[in-house]
Design goal:
This protein is an alpha/beta fold and 244 residues long. It has one domain: NAD(P)-binding Rossmann-like Domain (Rossmann fold, 3-Layer(aba) Sandwich). The protein contains 10 helices and 8 strands. An 8-stranded mixed β-sheet has the order 3-2-1-4-5-6-7-8, with helices on both faces. α4 links the parallel β1 and β2. The longest helix has 20 residues. The mean pLDDT is 94.
Length: 244
């Protein structure tokens, strides 16, 4: 590690240690989604010292994004979210390669987009993508981190390489179209975005460095208006169509 890079992480190394910092520099993380959660998670991963971060998102920056997507500015409206993030993050950590993929993750391209990474981070706003991620990671024995936020409420869980329990154990039935609340109807406030994104990033660091046990087999649920912070156990289902 050269002097410039050491200085960049000089406030993190005393906590993580040099060995763990060097481990992060050799790891590859893919972030699915570049909205509220994804833009912040991508930034935190690059600033933490991850060696390679791929950002996947099909959408363009809109004015309604600016209140909660802290890296985007008015001048970015109409541009690819993934591309804008790559441009902004490229100079933060000179040893991190940031790659943008302006695509929609689905079953036909999941291997192309997700294969070869140490951790997958879900920062999407739809269940279809999460089911795709889950099936890929269970089959590939890769850990992944789930996160969602709406109103003042946030959820997150980390799924182990063993694949048990998996996301389909938690949500066994695919929701009917229109049954899942969305931010443009229910609203969302930026503080819950920051909390879930920070939690997801810390889970990635724990997975990659062994700093402590990740949040395996538990669902974190946070609410802010009437503050509540709780963990719910996730049980593997014997009849699960993915990991059973």
């Amino acid at each position: 590690m050269n002097l410039e890079t050491y200085d960049l992480f000089s406030r993190q190394i005393p906590f993580l240690g040099m060995k763990r910092q060097e481990i992060l520099s050799k790891k590859k993380v893919v972030v699915v989604g570049a909205g509220g959660l994804g833009s912040l998670v991508s930034s935190l991963l690059v600033r933490a010292g991850i060696g390679f971060v791929r950002i996947i998102d099909r959408d363009l920056v809109e004015e309604s994004n600016l209140h909660r997507m802290v890296l985007f500015e008015r001048k970015d409206i109409g541009k690819s979210k993934a591309f804008v993030l790559k441009e902004k993050l490229n100079d933060i950590n000179p040893e991190c390669r940031v790659q943008d993929m302006t695509e929609n993750l689905n079953n036909s391209n999941k291997i192309k987009l997700l294969a070869g990474f140490d951790v997958v981070v879900d920062c999407t706003d739809n269940m279809d993508s999460r089911y795709v991620i889950n099936k890929f990671c269970v089959k590939s024995e890769k850990p992944w981190v789930y996160g969602s936020a709406i109103r003042d409420e946030g959820l997150s869980s980390t799924f182990a390489p063993s694949g048990k329990p998996c996301f389909s154990c938690l949500y066994p039935r695919k929701p009917k179209p229109g049954s899942i609340p969305v931010c443009n109807v229910e609203g969302v406030i930026s503080p819950i975005i920051g909390m879930i994104a920070s939690w997801e990033t810390m889970e990635v660091i724990k997975i990659l460095t062994g700093l402590s046990e990740p949040n395996y087999s538990k669902l974190l649920r946070i609410t802010l208006k009437k503050p509540k912070f709780e963990f719910l156990n996730i049980m593997a289902r014997k009849d699960c169509e993915v990991c059973g």
